């Protein structure tokens, strides 16, 4: 965070692990302090780590800076309830619903999450998607869609049972 007269600049500063050069990703530029919410201003002032991570994984921030953020080396862990296809087939309801919760968006494909959580091969998942046994109520293509917080996936147990 930097103040110039009555204006505030806020950056997320990246350092290259290979060449040690830095890049300033602009969060706010030439903004009047009174235009920044007090809590947000406090977090900027204290270099709040959680807030920094939010901006680091914000596609909006990347877009505003005309940069493509590379998340290929991000390590992540998928925490989920262990549920098998047999569990789905034995469920009381016709549809089993999964809701994705994530703090960050970093280009992870939804199909990868589904495969890991249900213990499916890529081939099995493709067949189930083509048969419309696994789908999104919003209609986005599961194989290409990037995970976002709140994404919902439905599994139709009757169609799954046919495989």
What does this 3D model show about the protein?
With 163 residues, the protein is α+β, with helices and mostly antiparallel strands. It folds into two domains: 2-64, no CATH class; 85-160, RNA-binding S4 domain (Structural Genomics Hypothetical 15.5 Kd Protein In mrcA-pckA Intergenic Region, Chain A, Roll), CATH 3.10.290. The protein has seven helices and six strands. The strands form two sheets. The chain has a three-stranded antiparallel sheet with strand order 1-2-3. Strands 4-6-5 form a three-stranded antiparallel sheet. The longest helix is centred in the C-terminal third of the chain and has 9 residues, at 110-118. The chain is elongated. 10% of the residues are buried. It comes from Parabacteroides faecis.
Measured by DSSP, the beta-strand proportion falls in: 15-25%
Helix fraction, binned, reads 25-40%
How many extended strands? 6
Major β-sheet profile: 3 strands, antiparallel
* Total domains: 2
Q: What order do the strands of the largest sheet run in, or round the barrel if closed?
A: 1-2-3
CATH topology annotation of the largest domain: Structural Genomics Hypothetical 15.5 Kd Protein In mrcA-pckA Intergenic Region, Chain A
Give the second-level CATH assignment, the architecture of the largest domain: Roll
Give the termini distance in whole angstroms: 57 Å
Shape: elongated
Spatial extent as radius of gyration: 21 Å
Order of helices and strands: EEEHHHHEHHEEH
Oligomer: single chain
Poorly predicted ranges: none
* CATH class designation of the largest domain: Alpha Beta
* Superfamily (CATH H level) name of the largest domain: RNA-binding S4 domain
Organism: Parabacteroides faecis
Pfam family, one: DUF1062
InterPro entries: DUF1062
Protein name: DUF1062 domain-containing protein
